[in-house]
Amino acid sequence: MVYSKELAAIYWTMKIDGYAKFSDINRNSKRARKVARLLEEMGLAQIESLGKVKLVRLTAKGHRVRWRMLELLRDISEVQTTSNISATSDDHLETQTQQNFMPTWLYGNPWLQVIGERGKA
Amino acid sequence: MRQEYVEVGKLRLSLPHLKCLRREELEQWVGNHEAERLLAKAFKHKVVLKPIHAEIRYGYGRLALSPGVTLVSGLEFTITPPPIYLSGDRDADFLWNLLVILPQRLDSMRAPVYVEELENRFSCNVIEGAKYALDVMERISSVYKIPFVVSGSAELVNLWGWLHTLIKARGSRGEAVLFVDGEVKVFR
């Protein structure tokens, strides 16, 4: 199939919310590595090491693709059922794309602001 | 080894220390433009350090630790080599100690780090604080190649992607059950 690689990449981009461990992508480590390499080749994600743990982190391009796909899915579901993805999850995605690699749980974290205030020159 | 230092607002940080900081932290401290410059400098710097390994002895056995963050809950244990203790401080003081003071100590002497009772370190926004603290630990562990041992309640297990988990719990008949990385190791 034409674009089969690209479609697979989009699927996996959708599955990764910001970043994921190899084991979160797939229990089969060979398969997980293959997916991570595919995403890296396409510039959708980068592989990082945190000690022993390997993480796949979406790049700005990866976040863009994910966001657009979610928008498309929302359009489809609106047509079919008139239900839509909640506004909060949409806001949250937009935030992700703006902040690039900032994990979702860190956005709006009050302690980040506390540390920010304390470290100001 | 001679360390190169950079001025980050009112702080003077080594380059490995700078690598531990997130863009969001730097932007708040010194503004976007300066943060960008510092991040580029940190990115160029390669830290070559040998990993420090540690061992937890817990009565029934032992567990070797590589750099990463390990959770220990409900059992008595000792860590070798002797770790740096992060005890006492709470809230902002604790986070500041972890993010700024600890790496400065690690610049002169690297050792495993022990953080006691993580969930009791925050008087409010406990989950957010614990996650942020664990994120800081993960970054420091990755740059300085040292293991972190965190003690606290077993509920912390779902909060983070731990390198190892050692959790002692009570079974239905009151017997002690020890879980090492989710596997039952000992019945008593």
Segments of chain A where pLDDT lies below 50 for 5+ residues? 81-100
What percentage of residues of chain B falls in helices of 4 or more residues? 25-40%
Strand content of chain B: 25-35%
Structural class of chain B: alpha/beta
Order of helices and strands of chain B: EEHHHEEEEEHEHEEEE
Radius of gyration of chain A: 16 Å
Overall structural class of chain A, as computed from helix and strand content, comes to alpha+beta
Tally of helical runs of chain A: 6
Quickly count the domains of chain A. 2
Order of helices and strands of chain A: HEHHEEHHH
The largest contact between protein chains, plus residue counts on each side, is:
A-B, 26 and 34 residues
Strand order of the largest sheet of chain B: 7-8-9-5-10-11-12
What is the CATH topology descriptor of the largest domain in chain A?
Arc Repressor Mutant, subunit A
Quaternary organisation of the protein chains: heterodimer
CATH homologous superfamily of the largest domain in chain A - what is it?
Winged helix-like DNA-binding domain superfamily/Winged helix DNA-binding domain
* Average pLDDT number of chain B: 89
CATH class call of the largest domain in chain A? Mainly Alpha
First-to-last CA distance of chain A: 57 Å
Got a strand count of chain A?
3
Percent range of helical residues of chain A: 55-70%
Tell me what you see in this structure.
The complex is a heterodimer of chains A (121) and B (188). Chain A has 121 residues and is an alpha+beta fold. Chain A has two domains: 1-87, Winged helix-like DNA-binding domain superfamily/Winged helix DNA-binding domain (Arc Repressor Mutant, subunit A), CATH 1.10.10; 91-121, no CATH class. In chain A, 60% of the residues lie in helices and 12% in strands. Chain A has a three-stranded antiparallel sheet with strand order 1-3-2. In chain A, helix 4 runs antiparallel to helix 5. The N and C termini of chain A lie far apart (57 Å). Mean pLDDT of chain A is 73; it is low at 81-100. By secondary structure, chain B is an alpha/beta fold. In chain B, the strands form three sheets. Chain B has a seven-stranded mixed sheet. In chain B, strands 4-3-6 form a three-stranded antiparallel sheet, with no helix packed on it. Chain B has a two-stranded antiparallel ribbon with strand order 1-2. In chain B, helix 2 crosses helix 3 (32-44). The model of chain B has no long low-confidence stretch (mean pLDDT 89). The chains are: A alpha+beta (121), B alpha/beta (188). Chain A binds chain B through residues 21, 49-53, 99-103, 105-106, 109-121, and chain B through 8-11, 22-25, 28-30, 66-69, 91-92, 95-96, 99-100, 122, 125, 128-129, 131-132, 135, 138, 141-142, 145, 161, 163.
